[in-house]
Amino acid sequence: MICVSLGRARHKRMIAEHKYLVEQGAELVELRLDFIGRAVNLKRLIDDRPGPVVVTCRRREDGGRWMKSEKERMMLLRSAIAAGVEYVDIEADVASQIPRYGKTKRVISYHEFTQTPDDLESLAAAMAEEDADIVKIASMATTFSDNVRMLELVKNAKQPTIGICMGEIGMITRILGERVGSPFTYATYSADKKLAPGQLNWKEMTELYRYKQINSETELFGIVGDPVADNYAPLVHNTAFYEQDLNARFLPFRVPSNDLHKFMQSVRDLKISGVSVAAPHSQAGLEYCTQAESSASGIGSINTMVYQGKDNLGYNTDYRAAMDCISEKLKLKKDVEKPMQGVNVLILGAGDVARAIAWGLRHRGADVTVASRTMDNTRVLASEIGCRAIEWDQRHEPKINLLINATPIGMHPDLDRSPYDASAMTQFLVVFDCVFNPESTLLIKYARKHGCRIITGVDMFVRQAAYQHKLFTGQDAPMATLRKTIKNATSPVRLN
Ligand SMILES: O=C1C[C@@](O)(C(=O)O)C[C@@H](O)[C@@H]1O
């Protein structure tokens, strides 16, 4: 079950939103009395309530907004119990001052906003002693291991327990609550009304992650990176899983660099079957592979990892996707060893994607030049791959047939910039922009205007995601859905 937290300064808004949520199917709503601006009129909020509630009045030290006296707060919580609300949230340290009465269930809570306590088990045991129906711990995740410990706590608890790791690192504890036996989890009313760090909104929980249908059989995948909050991979992969009716979910795993080792150690405990590997882990990820496809080893980085038995299999689907797009656009012969001999390519950028593409093109016999805004990086890439490095300012000089932008220039919100001048383009050039948000970057617009053939970042994104889908599920990806989903999500005009 999902409990939607409602915090509003005015009674009227709180009542209206509560009604709306229940109409939309919300099963439980938390009324955060500490958000109410004036004197709280509890009767007004609960007498005609449209559905079950948790009544909470959070102190400031626990992340709430309550400014009035503790005496008044206690009175409110007692009144809520006397009025027979379904649940009341009582902080563990004051629980003994608020006696049980009637049918109201007691959620005994503990909050910590800087870290996750070391000994969660002892803490939960002490909280259970406070005549708890539900024990709830919400603490800040600072490492991925905090999530693992929190989920273990909930899974092994004898008492119904809610364990939430707050912050972006902790998001998965919110999504996997039901799977480990949590009586409910918390979500926010809408994306702009987060009541706690890392809270997902109700729509994301129900539509994107299909929270209620997650069970012990659900196969888990995800993206491991830092940051991951704005990544489109969960949207695209979960939509594909849904379309194919797969009991699988794709989650955001925010893992800082120094925590990757712990993450890799935990994947089997968490029953994760595969991940998309994003920055900053693409190169380090390769070291955790027991086997990697030869292209991934050659490139020196992976973007996909599949956990199979004891093996960690590494792949680079960015490379595969980019090569497919180029082969198709240039109509390269398939059965030739060096189909790109004589093709002059300029790659802008020296990051993971530039490296993957440069490696692929060199293997196909292309003549590759690289330019990036940091000459040291350009030189390292060029010497590793065996291509030419030039200064960024010289990028318009080489005579080229194929231009590839693997820098983020032109990416939202940097819409008015192009990494390459229109004046240097001719109609014989093929222009490939790896930026997919927006699809029509300024570079792509210039290229269109000059009559160039183009490959967009969406073309590449869809293909790399489709390869991942196949590796993860063994099924062919619903290409049209992948394309529509990413186009829709990145379009300046929302289609629905
Ligand atoms: O204790 C909790 C959990 C919470 O802090 C969260 O992290 O979702 C949100 C609060 O409103 C609720 O009372």
UniProtKB/TrEMBL annotation:
This is 3-dehydroquinate dehydratase. Belongs to the type-I 3-dehydroquinase family. 3-dehydroquinate binds at S5, E30, L31, R32, R58, R174, Q199. It comes from the Bacteria. One of its GO terms (molecular function) is 3-dehydroquinate dehydratase activity. It catalyses: 3-dehydroquinate = 3-dehydroshikimate + H2O. Its EC number is 4.2.1.10. Residues 457-486 form the SDH C-terminal domain. GO terms for biological process: amino acid biosynthetic process; aromatic amino acid family biosynthetic process; chorismate biosynthetic process; shikimate metabolic process. Homodimer. Involved in the third step of the chorismate pathway, which leads to the biosynthesis of aromatic amino acids. Catalyzes the cis-dehydration of 3-dehydroquinate (DHQ) and introduces the first double bond of the aromatic ring to yield 3-dehydroshikimate. PANTHER family: BIFUNCTIONAL 3-DEHYDROQUINATE DEHYDRATASE_SHIKIMATE DEHYDROGENASE, CHLOROPLASTIC (PTHR21089:SF1), SHIKIMATE DEHYDROGENASE (PTHR21089). Pathway: Metabolic intermediate biosynthesis; chorismate biosynthesis; chorismate from D-erythrose 4-phosphate and phosphoenolpyruvate: step 4/7; Metabolic intermediate biosynthesis; chorismate biosynthesis; chorismate from D-erythrose 4-phosphate and phosphoenolpyruvate: step 3/7. The keyword Isomerase does not apply. Pfam families: DHquinase_I (PF01487), F420_oxidored (PF03807), SDH_C (PF18317), Shikimate_dh_N (PF08501). Coiled coil: none annotated. GO terms for cellular component: cytosol. Residues 223-304 form the Shikimate dehydrogenase substrate binding N-terminal domain. It is an enzyme of class 4 (lyase). Residues 345-393 form the Pyrroline-5-carboxylate reductase catalytic N-terminal domain. InterPro entries: Aldolase_TIM (IPR013785), Aminoacid_DH-like_N_sf (IPR046346), DHquinase_I (IPR001381), NAD(P)-bd_dom_sf (IPR036291), P5C_Rdtase_cat_N (IPR028939), SDH_C (IPR041121), Shikimate_DH-bd_N (IPR013708), Shikimate_DH_fam (IPR022893). Keywords: Amino-acid biosynthesis, Aromatic amino acid biosynthesis, Lyase, Oxidoreductase, Schiff base. The active site is at H111 (proton donor/acceptor), K136 (schiff-base intermediate with substrate).
